[in-house]
Amino acid sequence: MNKGLVSVTFRSKSRGEIVSLAVRAGLSEIEWGGDIHVPHGDIPAAGDATKLCHDNALAARSYGSYYKLASDFAPVAATASALGADSVRIWAGVKGSRDTDVVIYSAIMDKLRRDADDAAAFGLTLTFEYHPNTLTDNSASALRLLSDCGRDNVRLHWQPNQYKDADQNAAELHRVAPFVDFVHVFSWEGERRLPLAAHADDWKRYFDVLLTFGSPRAALLEFLPSETESDLLRDAEALRTMTE
What we know:
Layout: E1 2-6, H1 15-24, E2 29-33, H2 43-55, E3 62-67, H3 74-83, E4 87-90, H4 102-121, E5 125-129, H5 139-149, E6 154-158, H6 166-176, E7 180-185, E8 188-189, E9 192-193, H7 200-212, E10 218-221, H8 229-243
Parallel strand pairs: 1-2, 1-10, 2-3, 3-4, 4-5, 5-6, 6-7, 7-10
Antiparallel strand pairs: 8-9
Helix pairs in contact: 2-3, 5-6, 6-7, 7-8
């Protein structure tokens, strides 16, 4: 599977600096963040990111939009298209599955279907971030959302829950793995950030589950212990080791 970097891992750095870091770390793609490095509708920023990636043989297949199904999707789709991405990472609302009533769920589902159809017109897939405080905060809710939506271009963007143990995360992943396109890779225990090697055994287990159902398109490093090149180089090497 391809190995890459989520740009928001280095929020304080420029697009050019992030590309240089990815190259030095031996990574092959970047997921550009829509909240800072390539904002929605900023086509010049998308063009700059595209050129930087092209000039350095990096892919940009996923646009990390942070779009929450609550505004106009058109600028998001246009920006993803300008990046050359074919996937847009989004959030399933802003409330957890237990806190979302029938009325809100129905409204979110209507918006999702419209946005999925609009995305398809651009050749885009929508991947929901597997995240607390959204409708994809657990496997049952995520699978229900995919089923109720009924669109082939709606998938998942998985990451472990840092408040659950490896057994719980692996069980959740096993249920949704057939629908996972991208994975965010980090090593957290609650709010404590650790070197990736600290959870190497857990990640090898997660990757084994994913490979049972077919390899995800990319494993993307995110949330290093510190925003430094040394941490990136160390964790990129750990990621290579655990996926060999």
